[in-house]
Amino acid sequence: MIRMGTVGTNWITQQLVEALALSGQYELAGVYSRHQDTAEAFATKNHAQASYTNYEDMLTQAQLDVVYIASPNSLHFKQAMAAIDHDIDIVVEKPAFSNRQEMVAIQAALAQHPQVKFFEAARHVHTPNFHALEKALLGLPLIQGASLTYMKYSSRYDLVLDGEVPNVFSRQFSGGALQDLGVYPIYLAIALFGQPEHVQYYPTLIATGADGKGVAMLRYPGFDVTVSFGKTSNSTAISEIYGLKETIALDSAGELTHVEEHAASGVVQDLSAPDLANPMLPEVQDFARVLLAPDDPQNQADYQRWLQWSLTVNQVLYSLRVSANLRFPADEND
After folding, report:
1. Angstrom distance (rounded) from CA 53 to CA 96
2. How do 26-32 and 2-7 pair as beta strands?
3. Torsion, Cα of 160, 163, 168, 172 (10° steps)
4. Regarding beta strands 211-220 and 223-230, do their DSSP bridges make them parallel or antiparallel, or are they unpaired?
5. Is residue 35 located within the same domain as residue 73?
6. What is the spatial distance between Cα 146 and Cα 240, in angstroms, rounded to a whole number?
7. Cα–Cα distance between 266 and 270 in angstroms, integer?
8. For the chain, how many structural domains are there in total?
9. Is the pLDDT reported for residue 334 higher than 80?
10. Which tens digit of pLDDT belongs to each residue from 68-81?
11. CB 257 within 8 A of CB 272
12. Between 20 and 30 A from 290 (CA), which of 33, 159, 201, 296?
């Protein structure tokens, strides 16, 4: 069994913990929160072995194999570095780090601790539907572009309208639409098409100074990918990848719960796998596979592939922000 510790007690951590239980490959060894009542309540609800209000105590006392970090974006870096220093593997909620400077420092730390594994929790690129999408792309005679959309109204935006600054809409915490929802379609584009030649971001800023929604352009040799995302409105638009006469349609570039292939003949084929019991189950199973058998050649190849995706996504997110002059306090030394 893999001994997991968690940082953060919000809904995404709850979903992760439920996926761990479904996998049968992990035990919840520790729960960290800044507040004792929150830590204890989360630990009790999920049958964790211990709760902590001091992160260092969890790293030194809980005998962890891996820690899952789902704190506000700006806190990921220091918490990940501390775990690496203790030779503890890390799963960091996307986007893993605020900028390329932090990612470079993480790479250097990993080089000094070569046994430590770093995973970015981009759940959708581990799902059966993503694998079906990859296979369908191989059947296209060429790719002429894509339009990827992921736009969901956030209840936290109500707080912004009331004059507050929630973390997810705060530059101080490396928040905003690009970092929160935009990372999903950006991840999808990178995983499917690789690193773009040029990127440009057109954000719509809100009262907090963060981006509430926006459009990103990714330019590849021979085609462009348009990425639309936001947290201040809802979209019912599907996402599409364009072949010649063929089109692959996705219900959402973030959820990937439905995938269709529209053939040149007009025939529509549903490529979707059955609904998942938990959308995070495939990724925790993938991570467990690597953690339990790190020397397996296929596991090594998959790990390097996921790591390269994370590095490229980090670079692209940073370049998009630079193109829009959208800076975070975390960028001060960059």
Report:
1. 22
2. parallel
3. 150
4. antiparallel
5. yes
6. 6
7. 13
8. 2
9. no
10. 999 999 999 999 99
11. yes
12. 33
